[in-house]
Amino acid sequence: MKDTSESVIEKIIKSKKRIQNHGEVFTPRRIVKKMLDMPNIRDACQNLTSTFLEPAAGEGAFLVEILNRKMKMIEKNYGDELTRYENYSLLALSTLYGVELLEDNAQRCVMNMYQVYYDAYQQQAREHDGKVKNKVLDSAKLIISNNIAQGNFLTKLSSNGNPIIFSEWQPINLRKNAKTIKVQRTEFTLEEILNEEEKECGESSKHAVKIEQLDLFDSYDDEAEPKEKRLKYVPVKITEVYKEEMEEVDG
Fold first, then answer.
1. Which H or E run contains 152?
2. Nearest to 236 by CA among 181, 187, 175, 186
3. Are 188 and 165 a contacting pair, CB within 8 Å?
4. For 174, how many CA atoms within 13 A lie in the half-sphere containing its CB?
5. Of 160, 133, 161, 166, which is closest to residue 55 (Cα–Cα)?
6. How far is the C-alpha of 58 from the C-alpha of 28, rounded, in Å?
């Protein structure tokens, strides 16, 4: 006799109202696994730098399963040292992106992905008689929070009406036997990604500018205007991306 208790029944709907309003139906895990087992997709899940963008992420069914597969690959290929595992696992994590319309789903997706990362990292730390590092976990949180956006994929706008923005975490001079990895963060709007636009490495799409305060001895020219300074991200160790280090760029 099959166990049909609620604890083992996988929920694919939350409510009829959500179906009517948003067409929300979750993909069963067995279907997710079958889809990801298709040859080309299966190979991409085993590739360190292959990226995935889920336009209707829900609670992360596809992204969580892909992350599980990537983390197992990292353990197999880069798990000989904890430092190496930390660096490569963060790089694998940085390749997964998602857009979700509903706030509760987006939050749950973020939590589910972090839990998968944390559990795998904690297991590796135990096997290496080490400890999980706050800087690694903080970097994982930052990557996930920037890679999962709440918004409308069709309009390409976030919940606040601004363009959806994602960060590319580009590894710098990645060598086969490297133990540590440096990355440079560059921000793209979703529209720029879909249009395959190129940008200067490190460029920010937040349009963060600093107004340089005029010195009292500057020219009294009435037409003089405050100087604007753009900010760009600097190359950093992937375990330290949580610091979000930037520098001013002239022009």
1. strand 148-152
2. 181
3. yes
4. 13
5. 166
6. 12
Q: Are 146 and 155 in contact (CB under 8 A)?
A: no
Q: Quick check: 243 pLDDT over 90?
A: yes
- Helix H or strand E encompassing 232: strand 228-233
| Pairing of β 52-54 and β 96-100 | parallel
Helix (H, G, I), strand (E, B) or coil at 179: coil
CB atoms within 10 A of CB 98: 26
Are 221 and 199 within 8 A, CB to CB?
no
Percentage of residues in the chain with pLDDT exceeding 70? Answer: 78
Eight-class DSSP state of 241: G
> 0.85 cut: is pTM over it?
no
Tally of residues, the chain = 251
Residues 6 or more apart whose Cβ sits within 8 Å of residue 157: 151, 163, 164
Q: What is the DSSP string of 2-37?
A: ----TTTSPPS-S-HHHHHHH---PPPHHHHHHHHT
101-110 pLDDT tens trace: 989 889 999 9
